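Changelog excerpt

This revision adds worked examples to the README so contributors can see how folded entries look when concatenated. The first example is reproduced verbatim below.
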Amino acid sequence: MADTALELKIGIDNGEKYSDNQIIDKLQKSELVAELTSNLPEKPLALTWRLICISEIPFSYKLDYTQKLICKVYEKLSTPFGFSLSGDEKMFLPCYNAMIVSALCRLGRANDQQVQSAVEWINTNQPMQKGQKVELPNFNFDKYGGCFKNTPCYIGLAKSVFALRDFKEQTNGTKYDKQLKKGTNYILQHKFFKRLSKDEPITKHITDISFPETYHLNAVELLRFAKKTNLLLHENAADLIDLINKRQNKHGKWKNSFTYKADGYIIFDKDPKESQWTTQIIKQALKV
C-alpha cells in the first residue's frame, strides 16, 4: 500500500485536483511526512538534505514545519552570493548551492531574494564549458577536489543547469536563458552521462537509480531534466533512456541501486526490491 504522500503525487501526476482539506489530510496521514517533520535539524548539511527531501513532497510548502525549515536554511546558509554550508565563502560549493535553489523553487520560493542571489551567482560564475577561467580568490574550491579546473566539475555544472531550469519554470523569466542554453548543450554533448573522450560514465554514481537526489549526480535526475527540457526524443538522450529502461524489472518497476546515508537525509523507499517513489518519478518522466 502506497504512502498517502505518494498517493497525492500519483494523483497530481495523473491530473487529479485536490482541495486544501484533501491535501492536508493526505500529508497528515503520511508516515513519510511524519518522519520528515519529526525534528528540525540544526547543522547546515542536515538542513540541506532535509530541505531537498521535503521539497519532493507535493504541497509540502503548506506545512508549518516546511516554512520553519526554510527560515532556518536562510538563517544559517544564506549569503549575499548564494547558499554556503558555512554561511561564508569557506564552504561554498556550486553543487550544494544549486541543489538548494532547486529545492526552494519546488517549494514556491523562487522569488525570494536569497534564491535570486544564488541564481545570479550561477549565471555570473558557473562555467558551462571547458577552458573557462574563473577567478574567485575568497572561495576554496580546490579544497574539495576542484570545481573549476580547465574542465569544470560535471556534477556542479549539471546541478547548476538544473537550478537555472527550475528557476525559469517558477518565474517564467528569460534573464538566464543564455547560460541555461549553454549548459544544456554541454550536457547534451556528453549524452547526459558519458565522457567525451571514451564511451564510459563520467562519474562513479552517475548511472545510479536513486531518489531523492544527493551530491552524487544520478540517472534519475538527468532523466527528469531531459523531460523538463523536452529532450527525451533527442538522439543524445537515447543512451540514458536505454540505461534506465534496462533497469526495469519484470513487473515494470525500478529499485534504487544506491542508498545514501547522511544526517537529515530521509530514504523514501524502504523496500530494497522495489522503489515506489523512484518508479513513479521515472514513469512520469518517460511519458512523452
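The second example, added in the same revision:
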Amino acid sequence: MKKILHKSTTRGYANHGWLKSHHTFSFANYQNPERMNFGMLRVLNDDVVQPKMGFGTHPHKNMEIISIPISGSLSHKDSMENKRAIEVGEVQVMSAGTGLTHSEFNDSKTDEVNFLQLWIIPEAENATPYYNQKMFDEAGRKNKFQVFVSPKDNLVEGSLPINQQGYISMVDLDKDSEITYQPKKGAYFFLIEGEVIVADEILEKRDAIGITDAKNISIKANSSSKLLVVDVPMF
C-alpha cells in the first residue's frame, strides 16, 4: 500500500473577495509541481461564493467536471441550453468534450454557497458534450458507499456517467462506525466533515489521502463524518 497525505492546511488558497477557493491540486495562480494531480483526478477545488456573485460565462474542453454542493444553492447556465439550480444533495456532471461554455451563480441575497468541483481527465478527447444532475437519497449512503459517478460503459445503476474509468462515491458515517473500501484503481479520500481514520491515518475536516496498491482500505469514524472518495486510473 502506498499513501500520500494532504492536510487541509497545505492546499493552495485564493481570496478574490466574491470567491474564496482552496485548491487541492495546482490550479490558476497556485502552482505546485508536487501537487499536479492524483492519477486522472486533475482538480479538486473547495469553493465558497458570496451572495449575488458568481462565475461569468467561460469555456471548457476535454474535461469531466463534477460539482457537489455542500451548502447553499448554485445556479447553472450553459451553451447546451441547460438552466438549472444545483441544490445540496445533488451532483452535477458536465462532460465538456469538444467544447462548451457555462456560468455559475449564487442567487441568494444572504447565504454563501460552498461546493466542491472536481475535474477528471477523460478517457478519450473530443466526445460529444453532456450534462446531467441528480438528487441522491442520503439514506443510500448511511454507513455505506453511495456511487454518484461511474464510467459510461460500465455504469453503476443510479449513478451519473463520465467518459473515464472513474468512480465518485460518498459515505455518511456514524461515530465509531467501521467500513472497508475496495478500490478499483487508485483511491483519493477527501473528508468533508468530521474525523476518520483511513488506512491508519487520521483525517480531520478537509484533509485528504491518496492510496494506491491496496486491495482493502479500512475506515473508522472517530465522529459523525462525511467522506468522499474518487477512484481513478493512475495513468
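Reviewer comment on example two: The longest strand covers residues 41-49. The CA atoms of residues 123 and 164 lie 5 Å apart.
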